[in-house]
Amino acid sequence: MNASYAGFDINAFFRGVGQRDVYPDKESAAFWGPYSRKYMVMPKFVGENIWTEDNPNAYFPRPQAYISTGSQDLSYAQTKYLQNAAYLRLKNLTMGYTLPNSLTKKLHIEKLRVYFTGQNLFEFTPLTDAYDPEGCLAHDPDAGESVGIGTAYPIQRTYSFGIELQF
Prior knowledge:
This protein has helices at about 30, 45, 100-105, and strands spanning about 1-5, 10-15, 20, 85, 85-100, 110-125, 160-165. The chain is mainly beta. It starts with a strand and ends with a strand. The protein folds into two domains: about 1-20 and about 80-165, no CATH class; about 25-80, no CATH class. The strands form two sheets. It has a five-stranded antiparallel sheet with strand order 1-2-5-6-7, with no helix packed on it. Strands 3-4 form a two-stranded antiparallel sheet.
């Protein structure tokens, strides 16, 4: 998307996937938390959705270590824990303003433009916060597949401001 009007300009690039299902594999501690290893931190979305006597229809079962690993109950793919990894992300946004020539000519400047650029500013996704839909659904290449998905570095958000000056 690209537009300009009265000295203002905007350029936006979106990226996304309309349909993608991902199952958090048995070594995916970012999703399973304490179901993976007894010493793992319990992610907030897990803690808010675990089985208790007051919440018998919870998304996650009663906390129990190691039931997502090896050949235990949660290690087998099932539709209940299948994650919708569809997303729409604003990959790049640049907004700028070019001062009118009537002002810049007096200063012997041919063009003066100020701008903002940002990468990966936001995304819309139903995927749990444990994963980044674009970058973290892979295995950490340095650790191998023994650590599960969600271990690669997440996509970083970057912001820049600049001045374009031509004499």
